[in-house]
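Q: What changes when iron/sulfur cluster is included in the input?
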Amino acid sequence: MTQLSSVRADGSRVPIHPSDVRGRFITARRVGFAVLMAIYLAAPLVHVGGHPVVHLDVEQRRFYLFGGSFNAQDFWLVLFLATGFVFSLLFVTAWRGRVWCGWACPQTVFLEGLYRPIERLFDGPRERRMKLAGAPWTAGRVLRLAGKHATWLAISLAISHAALSLFTSAVDLEQMVIDGPAAHPVAFGWAVSVTALLHFNFTWFREQFCVVLCPYGRMQSLLHDRHSIVIGYDVGRGEPRGHLRKEAPAGPKLGDCIDCKLCVTACPTAIDIRDGMQMECIACAQCVDACDEVMDRIHKPRGLIRYASLSALEGKVGKVLRPRLVLYAMLAVAAFGALGFTVIQRRSFEANVLRLAGVPWVLEGTTVRNQFEVHVVNKASRPSRLSLTVTSPVPAEIRIAEPAVILQSFEDRRVQVVVTIERALLQKAIVLEVIATDHSSGDRRVQKVRFVAPSAR
Ligand code: SF4
Ligand code: SF4
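A: The predicted holo structure follows.
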């Protein structure tokens, strides 16, 4: 069994103190982290169409996403969303390896974008952090540790509240905070649990989440192929490795790797990428930046460690278009296309005809009476004014209890409809049309209902 670099043979944890790197990838990643954190944290605060951009009101089973409003009946749309997301991830992984992990996964974004910089602020660079880890427990060390954890805790609290406000809305959450824990014990329990979980994960568990827990990380060998663009070491150029010397050593000419191990100390999962592709590599490119800086200093071309396919690193021709890439792309486009089409076609309301229990018709002298209900639901995030009409192909007396209905967002109503037709006119099957029109959006729904009558004797 392969031994993880961050876990000893006895199961204990190897403490990891990645060194600080400078370079084009870490700069680009930091910009990306800032943008993504702003998006994560702003999602519950920014409003579109009177509701937050993302508000998952699980209790009321109402969901507001990017200006659209959905209820439990729309839950099947999640199937398209999840399918599209899964195939997009498969496509990106087959094409660009674990770019999601290193650049956009919330685990990396918050760890590298917030928690790790705070650690550096309190404890200094790698060497100082390592020294501190084994230093005696002085008052200064305790104070520094307390300050660091208090700052981390404040951040965990902020993230957990941002996450919870996706479910309660930021306004309601603010009111709960003002009311205090006693008034909202369940919400308080969630806030404490999520904060504790975040704190544990980002301050202690860290890379173990990626290498032990995350199922996506563990499936990498299935998702990559030799043509996927991953982060790799150019063995042909780097080997045989050897320390830099003023005079050329005797024996075979050395490769470009000076065995400084800066790529290893920069790695947040403590692997040596020179040993080849490993499951723990999250494609963060910190080793690329570290090695490029070394190459600059020794006046060698950059890219000894770089983004490349395993085929290209072996000097073979890489393939961009592969059947699996095309298949994943087509399936992702199909799923998102179906989702987009369904959402566009979606009406702002539902109107369904329901027959009442019992005999569906009533004989009254020479006439037959049918009675049913129209169940209308306003699915829009604003109030709606609906009108109901019923048409018949033959003369009929039509009574609608409420021909005009005003419904608040997600309010529903059952409207009674009674249709009476002379029996003599029922020689042929009669199909009524129930037409519901939303005057706020202009949407219209037409339901066909068969008029039910006793068979002629
Ligand atoms: S940083 Fe570059 S030169 Fe240094 S050990 Fe790693 S691969 Fe070799
Ligand atoms: S090997 Fe390089 S890219 Fe992979 S996790 Fe380590 S530093 Fe990041």
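Observations recorded in class: The first strand starts at residue 47 and ends at 48.
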